[in-house]
RNA sequence: GCGGGUGUAGCUCAGUGGUAGAGCGCCACGUUGCCAACGUGGCUGUCGUGGGUUCAAGUCCCAUCACCCGCUCCA
């Protein structure tokens, strides 16, 4: 499937529009149209129902170590700036970058390493991107620059150890990591990956706040509130859906990498001893969720991260990925990450921003010997009344992208097939084979023709169904055309009132995927639709 | 941020300096008896945006915005 065709369909049928389109659009922002808003709502509602509202607190679900509770939360998008300092986002999202005019490459300012060297009467700073065997790389680059053979390496006079580019004031004598000439690096420029805003009408620098780059932190900072107010006991999860914002350098791939996006996140709190089991449970449970809603083919995969890939605080992470059509063959894009985060988050908000030291997480210290970012100082540990044990819970985080899931469902659903026309000749058809739970319109109601009382009966059925379902009434043009229009919108069922209805009160139900038609009594339509949408 | 490509009707696209086009869709009326292709009529455009060159610009030049591809980035 070519992505262009899906993008065109999304626009034509009102799934997705470019944001602010009449003013030329805005990079990285998208609007959901009349059909898109229903689809995305259905994705989110399916998630909330399956994970939270419909969760059985009493049962031990297949694969789970035991019963658990689920509860929800809806936090403010703007939180105290200290939240982001302790979570690590402030430092990580606050990068300085340098560009190379010659190689057109971009580097993190603080990650470029290099060493001063003098030869042939010239003193230059030889840079390499941080990595392995920096010394070796630097020497090779220096030899090459001065046009020396390896056996003449002693002509290179090193001045000091390998240091960061941040120690260099003037870049005119710097040999960039991929450059052949000196002085090709631009001055460092600040990249704010968090959206900055100001709280209060007169706000100055000290009133700076950030739009949240993830919903998770709102859950951590409310952990104690939920414990104290809801009688939940560990193990339990807190779920939240909502907008997040990241000032991506390169928004790309339709809605896949947007600057404003919606997340569906769970923070699941459990005893440290049980956390590996819960991690595996959530990984498999979340994968099965996508499969159940139609991403069943080879385009969906569950990928465990390799140890090198793991974040500094994580002891296990898996991605649920989808082979989006805009990616290169063999490449997958992330729909959801399931991370074992240990006690990193709760401890950070207690003690302050943490860093890894050996095998331990310790509070990162600033140059003044005090914590670089001070925590709340509140006790976020948990006391188990039954075992008389106090501990900081470990956290399993299934973090999903609502827009990415919506896009994946659209990509998977898009299908061009051939169906017979009135003469039995095969004609092209565009159909969205969306799972009935996700379909924006659940059913359409048609009078076969606009006479003999058919419209009256059809309208009555439409009104009855509309009370419970998003249904659509259409009496325009030939009925075949109406079926095709619904196919493009992904509507799974069509009910048609025809001549026979007038005699025996039965209607036809037409299936989007098989095109099969079946008669059923008018009075049973609502009941049947209920069953089909389950 | 860099390089390449693209931008014309709701959609897909034609239009190589001289009156703005086609197909599909959409709307109305008629027709209608189950899978888009019946008839008649109709609506649709600051040619992405802003400047410039020219008697004349959709077309040439400059800038800018957006989308696609490749770098870069992606806790």
Low-confidence stretches: none
Please report which band the strand proportion falls in: under 5%, 5-15%, 15-25%, 25-35%, 35-45% or over 45%: 25-35%
Radius of gyration: 29 Å
**Which shape, going by the Cα principal axes?**
globular
Summed up, the domain count is 3
**Main beta-sheet strand count, sense and barrel state:** 7 strands, mixed
Structural class: alpha+beta
Number of helices: 14
Kindly provide the name of the CATH class of the largest domain: Alpha Beta
Name of the CATH architecture of the largest domain:
2-Layer Sandwich
Strand element count: 29
Helix content: 25-40%
Q: What report would you give on this structure?
A:
The protein has 534 residues and is α+β, with helices and mostly antiparallel strands. The protein folds into three domains: 3-93 and 194-408, BirA Bifunctional Protein, domain 2; 96-191, no CATH class; 441-533, Rossmann fold, CATH 3.40.50.800. The strands form nine sheets. A seven-stranded mixed beta sheet has the order 3-13-14-22-17-16-15. Strands 26-25-27-28-29 form a five-stranded mixed beta sheet, with helices on both faces. Strand 23 (414-420) and strand 24 (426-432) form a beta hairpin. The mean pLDDT is 89. The structure holds one RNA strand of 75 nucleotides.
